[in-house]
Amino acid sequence: MTLESVYTASYVDAEVLLPLNEYLDQSTIDSYLDAIVMAGSVGDNLYALQSFDLSAPVFYNVDIFEAAGIDVPADENGNWTLDLAWSFDEFLDNARILRDHMGEEPVHMYPDNTGWQMYAHSPIILSNGGTFVGENGLDVDGYLNSPETLEALNFIKSLFKEGIAASTAKENAFALEKAAISFEGPWMIGYFDAEYPDLNWSLMPYPYGKEGHNSAPHGSWYVAGTKNTEHPELTAELVAHLTNKDSAITMEEEAGLIPGHKELLASSELYSDYPRKLMLDQLVNTAHVKPKSPIFIVLEDVLGDIVEGMALDTDTVENLVETAITKVQRESARFD
């Protein structure tokens, strides 16, 4: 079976999934990227694997940055590397310059509640040391309203309040050069290159709140086995076979996806050079701690409510969060 990696805990809670680590040798498991093993694990058990992964970038328009006089951080080779990511304050300062230069909101964030917020916006919260839920996957009071989480949410709110990010999604804003920065999926690279060949885009690291807490989106559809199989060893071996190195090579060649096995990274042609290498660096070298919860879908929904509420200025961040906590607690009460 296949499942989105973020829902692994929900399937485990429903006692659907086979613990793969009971049937696969450790060397097989260790061949996968740590991010993949972590995403497919709940507690001490591994339940799902994949031969590839994704890491969403932040796109920026090179021409608009140059015209606005933005000084792009670069290493000795001219690359905007992960260790040169902007802090929240640096992001705000430069976004204000872009806003004044463009005369419109320079940042496109897709604030409408579509499920995108947990994937694309949660790393901003995680990079500030914030979180969503306790270790049991159910407690949100003290986590979703922690000082670190609220500080990161208020940073996002300031983008809307100051006219830096549009309060509603604008179709094709980045491609049409109506936005200079856009939080989009990596699949947009092929679209931009094919449909907008003159668009001078590049990639920048996700902004961070606290030093050493860099985070970035990751995750995709994973392969798992069902617990009620009559042949658990063969099922686990099949999961490993479907997600093996040959599969990883094929998925990179045919779909442009990041190889999910450690030994393939050095030989990856697509991700050996910047700006694409930044996505690989984000996947391998940043923290990924999306909530592992049997009610992940509820957490995903309330984060969408919070971001949409901030964008539309329906209430304070603190009140939006308290409303979200009440909603989550109603759902988590089923597990008492």
Short synopsis of the structure:
By secondary structure, the protein is α+β, with helices and mostly antiparallel strands. The protein is 41% helix and 9% strand. Helix 4 crosses helix 5 (88-102).
Give the secondary structure arrangement, pairings included:
Layout: E1 2-4, H1 8-13, H2 26-30, H3 34-39, E2 41-42, E3 45-46, E4 48-49, E5 52-53, E6 58-61, H4 62-68, H5 88-102, E7 107-108, H6 116-120, H7 122-126, H8 147-161, E8 181-183, H9 188-195, E9 201-204, E10 221-224, H10 232-242, H11 245-255, E11 258-259, H12 276-285, H13 296-312, H14 317-332
Parallel strand pairs: 7-8
Antiparallel strand pairs: 1-10, 2-3, 4-10, 5-11, 6-8, 6-9
Helix pairs in contact: 4-5, 8-13, 13-14
Pfam family, one: SBP_bac_1
InterPro entries: Bact_solute-bd_prot1, SBP
Commentary on this structure:
This protein is α+β, with helices and mostly antiparallel strands. It has two domains: 2-55 and 218-285, Periplasmic binding protein-like II (D-Maltodextrin-Binding Protein, domain 2, 3-Layer(aba) Sandwich); 58-216 and 295-335, Periplasmic binding protein-like II (D-Maltodextrin-Binding Protein, domain 2, 3-Layer(aba) Sandwich), CATH 3.40.190. Helices cover 41% and strands 9% of the residues. It contains 14 helices and eleven strands. The chain has helices at 8-13, 26-30, 34-39, 62-68, 88-102, 116-120, 122-126, 147-161, 188-195, 232-242, 245-255, 276-285, 296-312, 317-332, and strands at residues 2-4, 41-42, 45-46, 48-49, 52-53, 58-61, 107-108, 181-183, 201-204, 221-224, 258-259. A four-stranded mixed β-sheet has the order 7-8-6-9. It has a three-stranded antiparallel β-sheet with strand order 1-10-4. It has a two-stranded antiparallel sheet with strand order 2-3. Strand 2 and strand 3 form a beta hairpin. Helix 4 (62-68) packs across helix 5 (88-102) and helix 8 (147-161) crosses helix 13. It is globular. The model has no long low-confidence stretch (mean pLDDT 94).
